[in-house]
């Protein structure tokens, strides 16, 4: 086992010195199960990631964010954690994780891991002990066990709706076979919610933070960060919810948790960051999570959900920047993640916005249009002020895969009654090389197929194929990230809008000789570019010196 990285002596000097790395970082999301399989069992693993660190270095990323890599029954893709201090055996060992963290650091790449504080796996020792201990026991106080309503307790304590649709309460069975108490699960029954009013729960998670910070992790991404605190009186959700008064969402007491976590993060050198998954529509309440003594950044879901429309995108950019400004936090920009329809597919649809409730099988898409827009969106997001998140495979221009129903694994599909295709379509294993599946995802000669099937048409989208094609999505991302890292005007900092018409998004970054203009044409026809010294990069070739529709260009404005 490698030595825990508890002090700066084990960190590269450049990483220690850059205390504000997170404000402009390019962070690559690794869904381990689908990234690279080193042992031929059809499942991605940590040694597979280690074997591809050179690829990630060449891509130009500053940090890797890993979805949960812990032991788990995988009832929800690993977001049902059974042990926070170990690694799922399908992914490797704790030593593999420590080596990965250290090897990435030597390449200048930090590691961010997922923490899932709202719930744990029903197979976690705490929950198994609570089931065995019975009603009224101290073990059950760590969760939300409650008697049912009605004469025989047959009715659920509340009618709250699950984030995965359906009910939020499951009933236990007593040792004699009779129905017992109910327990709360805002997601699946295999993910019982923790009671964050209990000191054991808070102490356990604070110790988990230290466990991973000691091993060199540069930050944690906090899943469902606004859901931890519940109203203990268990009221129903009113038709109109006052700020901070929803029984399970964005309650004011949750900020005490993150203030405690920030104090722990600040004990460590090298700036260990807290990144929140915060689904809060109110901009002021969203920003409250980013006060200087709480989280460093939070995911910007608003931008990712907007349609391909100049007014909509500008509205989102202005909304997010204005929300972050009062607390001095940088915004984050992301086009997709492991839950969201990939941009190549989404931007090719008649309705190019995203909402979970709208996902359906057979929704038509124009992949040529979607790819053109996804290329333009890649340059748009990389030019905006703040940090940039990139989900694995988006740099290859992969489309959402509509999988056969018989291979689907996602609980969102099953809990929707089979209406929602779920999230597996954006989790299909990556194509690395070759003309046929598994496209280098698994070693040559492997007998096990990838855990989700790859499309026949992916040979042209493999890393190997795109590295040989200067017009590929991979080349575009590599060029854009190199320029972003080189140019002082890009990353965190001010932005100034340019007025080039209703269908054009245009803004300035930096000033003087460093000034760069980003121009995005979302209109129906090509446009003239504003005066400039030269073009740094464009998402597609210009037409007679004009920027085509659904295209983005970065301009050096002065010589």
Helical content stands at 10-25%
Strand content bin: 5-15%
Total helices: the number is: 15
Say how many strands there are.
Answer: 18
**Which strand order do you get reading across the main beta sheet?**
9-8-7-3-2-1-11-10
Distance between the termini: 53 Å
Specify the overall morphology: globular
- Give the biggest beta sheet: 8 strands, parallel
Estimated structural class: alpha/beta
Average of the residue pLDDT scores: 94
List unreliable stretches of 5+ residues: 1-7
Structure description:
It is a single chain. The protein has 559 residues and is of the alpha/beta class. It contains 15 helices and 18 strands. The strands form four sheets. An eight-stranded parallel beta sheet has the order 9-8-7-3-2-1-11-10. It has a five-stranded antiparallel beta sheet with strand order 12-13-14-18-16. A three-stranded antiparallel beta sheet has the order 4-6-5, with no helix packed on it. The termini are far apart. The model is unreliable at 1-7 (pLDDT under 50).
């Amino acid at each position: 086992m490698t030595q825990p990285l508890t002090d700066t002596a084990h960190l590269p000097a450049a990483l220690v010195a850059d205390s504000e790395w997170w404000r402009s970082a390019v962070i690559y999301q690794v869904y381990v199960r689908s990234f690279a399989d080193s042992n031929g069992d059809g499942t991605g693993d940590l040694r597979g990631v280690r074997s591809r660190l050179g690829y990630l270095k060449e891509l130009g990323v500053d940090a890797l964010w890993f979805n949960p890599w812990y032991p788990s029954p995988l009832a929800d893709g690993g977001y049902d954690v059974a042990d926070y201090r170990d690694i799922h055996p399908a992914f490797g060992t704790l030593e593999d994780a420590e080596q990965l963290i250290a090897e990435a650091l030597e390449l200048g790449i930090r590691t961010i891991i997922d923490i899932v504080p709202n719930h744990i796996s029903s197979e976690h020792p705490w929950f198994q002990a609570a089931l065995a201990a019975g009603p009224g026991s101290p073990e059950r106080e760590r969760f939300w066990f409650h008697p049912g309503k009605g004469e025989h307790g047959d009715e659920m304590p509340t009618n709250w709706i699950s984030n995965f649709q359906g009910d939020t309460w499951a009933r236990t069975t007593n040792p004699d076979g009779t129905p017992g108490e109910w327990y709360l699960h805002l997601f699946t029954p295999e993910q019982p919610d923790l009671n964050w009013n209990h000191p054991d729960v808070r102490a356990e998670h604070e110790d988990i933070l230290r466990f991973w910070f000691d091993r060199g992790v540069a930050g944690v991404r906090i899943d469902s960060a606004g859901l931890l605190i519940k109203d203990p009186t268990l009221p129903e959700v009113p038709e109109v919810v006052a700020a901070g008064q929803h029984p399970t969402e964005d309650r004011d007491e949750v900020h005490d948790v993150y203030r405690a976590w920030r104090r722990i993060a600040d004990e460590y050198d090298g700036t260990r960051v807290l990144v929140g998954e915060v689904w809060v529509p109110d901009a002021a309440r969203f920003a409250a999570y980013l006060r200087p003594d709480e989280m460093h950044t939070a995911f910007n879901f608003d931008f990712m959900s907007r349609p391909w429309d100049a007014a909509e995108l500008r509205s989102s950019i202005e909304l997010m920047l204005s929300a972050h400004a009062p607390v001095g936090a940088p915004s984050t920009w992301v086009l997709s993640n492991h839950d969201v329809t990939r941009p190549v597919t989404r931007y090719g649809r008649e309705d190019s916005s995203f909402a979970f409730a709208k996902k359906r099988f057979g929704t038509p898409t124009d992949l040529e249009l979607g790819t053109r827009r996804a290329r333009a969106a890649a340059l748009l997001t990389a030019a905006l002020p703040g940090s940039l998140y990139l989900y694995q495979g988006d740099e290859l221009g992969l489309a959402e895969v509509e999988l056969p129903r018989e291979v689907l694994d996602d609980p969102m599909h099953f809990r929707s009654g089979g209406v929602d295709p779920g999230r597996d379509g954006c989790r299909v294993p990556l194509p690395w090389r070759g003309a046929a599946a598994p496209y280098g995802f698994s070693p040559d000669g492997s007998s096990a197929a990838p855990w989700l099937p790859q499309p026949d048409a992916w040979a042209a989208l493999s890393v190997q194929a795109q590295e040989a094609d200067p017009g590929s999505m991979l080349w575009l991302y590599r060029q854009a990230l190199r320029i972003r890292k080189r140019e002082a005007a890009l990353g965190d900092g001010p932005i100034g809008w340019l007025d080039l018409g209703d269908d054009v998004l245009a803004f300035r970054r930096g000033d003087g000789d460093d000034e760069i203009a980003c121009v995005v044409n979302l209109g129906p026809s090509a446009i003239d570019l504003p005066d400039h010294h030269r073009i740094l990069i464009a998402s597609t070739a210009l037409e007679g010196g004009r920027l085509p529709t659904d295209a983005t260009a970065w301009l050096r404005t002065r010589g």
